[in-house]
Structure formats: C-alpha cells, structure tokens
Amino acid sequence: MPYWKCFYHAIWSTYKRKPVISSDLEKVIFEAIQAKTRILKGEVFAINGIEDHIHIAVSFPPHLAGAEWVRIMKGLSAHNVNVSFPNLESRFRWQQGYGLLTLGTKALPSVVKYIKQQKIHHANKTTNAYLEQTDDD
Predict the structure, then answer these.
(1) What is the bridge-based pairing of β-strands 43-50 and 99-103?
(2) Rounded CA separation 49/120 (Å)
(3) What is the pLDDT tens value at each position of the chain, 137 positions in all?
(4) By the 8 A CB rule, do 40 and 61 touch?
(5) Using CA atoms, how far apart are residues 8 and 134, in angstroms rounded to an integer?
(6) Burial of 102 (0-12, 13-18, 19+ CB in 10 A)
(7) How many Cβ atoms sit within 10 Å of the Cβ of residue 64?
(8) Is residue 18 exposed (0-12), middle (13-18) or buried (19+ Cβ within 10 Å)?
(9) Domains present along the chain, CATH in parentheses
(10) How far is the C-alpha of 10 from the C-alpha of 45, rounded, in Å?
(11) Which residues, 6 or more positions from 29, have their beta carbon under 8 angstroms from its beta carbon?
C-alpha cells in the first residue's frame, strides 16, 4: 500500500452567493461531506463556513483528483439538502466554481484553526484573502 499525505483547503460558494446556509442546512452539508470523504478513504480535519460559502481542510488519496472530490462533495451535499428540505423557497445549489489549495503538513494546523474560526473572521472582517479565493470571485 503506498504512503501518501495530500492535504487540501477547499472553498466553494452557494449559487449566486446567496446567503442561504442556515444552521439546519449546514448540519446536512457537513455530515454529507464528512461521511462521503470517509468512504473515499479521506479525512476531514475541519469544516465550517458562513451563509454563502464553506471551507474544508481535507485529505484524500492521490488516485482521486481534487476536481473529482469537489464535484462529488458539491453534488452529494446539494442533493442531501434538497431531499432533507423539500420545501425550500428554491432548490439548493452551489456555484459552479471553487477554490482548492494544496497544503504542507506544517500549514495544516493554521488552516484548520482558520476554518474553525470562519464565523468569527467574517464577523470581525479578519479574513485572509488568499484562503477565501474561489474562481467565481
């Protein structure tokens, strides 16, 4: 079995950056991503966000392309939200784009801390522009 350490910081937004992620939706989204990542032999180190986007510190095997992992997570989480909340005003969707940054082992703890404090960073306007990037910005 090969040895690997592949760490990523993933960021993606709700469709048109609409502030629709409530605490109830957040729970469904986070659980879906964590469960599917485990099935794919990966690990979620931190997941958090605000009403219009989420951040994830994650590791997954190198045979799985980053774009494929993002596609799977976005599709599954949106599907689970729409099944769990069939009476939403409009169908839950993610923006097409995303950000995916690679991390070294030494950077992982600081990125995990940043993600865990997402709501605080946004409330206090202390976000890190580099760690907030997606291609739809």
Answers:
(1) unpaired
(2) 10
(3) 788 899 999 999 999 999 999 999 999 999 999 999 999 999 999 999 999 999 999 999 999 999 999 999 999 999 999 999 999 999 999 999 999 999 999 999 999 999 999 999 888 888 888 888 888 65
(4) yes
(5) 14
(6) exposed
(7) 15
(8) middle
(9) 7-132 (3.30.70.1290)
(10) 12
(11) 21, 54, 77, 80, 81
* 114: nearest Cα among 57, 73, 69: 57
Helix axis angle, 23-39 to 66-84, nearest 10°: 140
Contact 8, 100 (CB under 8 A): yes
Cα 111 from Cα 57, distance rounded (Å): 7
Look-up of token digits 């997402």: 118
Please state, in angstroms and as integers, the Cα–Cα distance from residue 113 to each residue in 1, 14, 105, 109, 121, following that order.
Answer: 31, 23, 14, 6, 11
What is the number of residues in the chain? 137
Q: Residue 126, class by beta-carbon neighbours within 10 Å (0-12 exposed, 13-18 middle, 19+ buried)?
A: exposed
Per-residue tokens: 90 = 């409009």
